[in-house]
Amino acid sequence: MIRTLLAAVAAGGILAAGAAQAQDKIKIGVLATLEGALTTLGEDAIRGMQIAMKQANAKAGGKTIEVVTFPTNASPDSAIRGARKLVEQDKVDILVGPVSGSEGIAIRDYSKTQPQVTFLNGSSGAMETTFVTPSENFFRFNMDGAQWLAGLGKYLVEEKKYKKIAALAEDYSFPYTQLFGLTLEYCQAGGQIVEKFWVPLGTKDFGSIIAKLPDDVDAIYLGLGGGDAVNFFNQYSQAGGKAKLIGGSIMVDQTVLSSKGAAKRLAIGVPSAGPQADVWDDPKWQAWVKLYQESFPPDKRFTSPSLTGTAYYNDFNAVFQVLNAINGDLSDGHKKFRAGLAALELDAPNGKIKLDQNRQAIGTNFITEVVELPNGDLVNKAVKTIPNVSQMLGLDPATRQKIGLPSRTNPECKTSY
């Protein structure tokens, strides 16, 4: 699949811009997880990029766009290796990526050492990437993982009547961030999180964890994604698991819901939240889904675009809109380009996106539930939208700063903060 995707990029004229002179060409580097547990997320990120490139005819601001892609495995080390290759060897002007949370923190730090390059986060969602020590040349047009769960806590308590839950999640920065956002809202609404279980990214055997999951809870929150989520569903089904489930954003994304096997049917009815919903009655979103579906054969895509596919599509559209507005002028240390990105309000398929003072997205979040379509496909359907979600998460800045950053143990489950 990885080779097929990269071959398709090359065949489309994206990896090589022909005989254009350097001054008539802008080079964009792309980091995507094409190895490891989150491979499916990276593959769809590439699809989102391909669609944006095709729409723009590989041109923006009067210049040819050349893309160079580097595969990562979701580890910070692999992301840094890729960034160094793209920036220091390939001499890209702009870098888009990465996919995963801890990768994003590493790339944020690396961007500070490369002021000549402008960085756009791909889809990674760790909070601290922009919330603390932000980088002046690093822009994130997707919300972080805590923002992606905005509205879910109240929904679980008030609508689903889940008053007591346990949590199982991967042991790295993005799941910490997601559980941070859920904990703040869920516990203030009167819910209790009685126990947390952490597993390494890339876990193959969930048997011992499944045996420890408590029975005396209303539901279990699952902060898993990609291959880990599929493995859990398969093993939980085999173990006869019956608990009600709650999904983290990538647990109910198309990267999981489009996977093979019957075990994924455990996801039907699962409530979640995230930056998009497969089924939403907005015409712009429906047009994006149709474009995605028509751009690839059914066996080379998901039922609808994943959140990574949408995120990378949005990133490239943000780049192209600003380059067109400034006639491709990247002189003076990208001054015009960065000012344009900072001021841009992107009318994206999943809602309007603007950036805060840290160049972090403020956008629309979606409360969803997984449903089965008549043809048997599983999708997450919009139940409610939450507009203008910022990293403050509805708290005043002083309170928000006092709570600190996500970790295995932070924040505590309290009714007030």
Main attributes of the structure:
Rossmann fold; 417 residues; alpha/beta; disordered N terminus; 5-stranded antiparallel β-sheet; 6-stranded mixed β-sheet; globular; 2 domains
Task: Describe, in plain words, how this protein is organized in 3D.
With 417 residues, this protein is an alpha/beta fold. It folds into two domains: 2-143 and 283-363, Rossmann fold, CATH 3.40.50.2300; 147-280 and 364-403, Rossmann fold (3-Layer(aba) Sandwich), CATH 3.40.50. Helix content is 37%, strand content 21%. It has 14 helices and 15 strands. The strands form three sheets. A six-stranded mixed beta sheet has the order 2-3-1-4-5-6. Helix 7 links the parallel strand 7 and strand 8. Helix 2 packs parallel to helix 12 (307-325). The longest helix has 19 residues, at 307-325. Mean pLDDT is 94; it is low at 1-21.
- Silhouette: globular
The CATH superfamily of the largest domain bears the name Response regulator
How much is the radius of gyration in Å? 20 Å
Q: Biggest sheet: strands side by side, in what order? A: 2-3-1-4-5-6
Q: Tell me the CATH architecture of the largest domain.
A: 3-Layer(aba) Sandwich
Approximately how much beta-strand content do the residues carry?
A: 15-25%
CATH class of the largest domain: Alpha Beta
Order of helices and strands: HEHEEHEHEHEHEHEHEHEHEHHHEEEEH
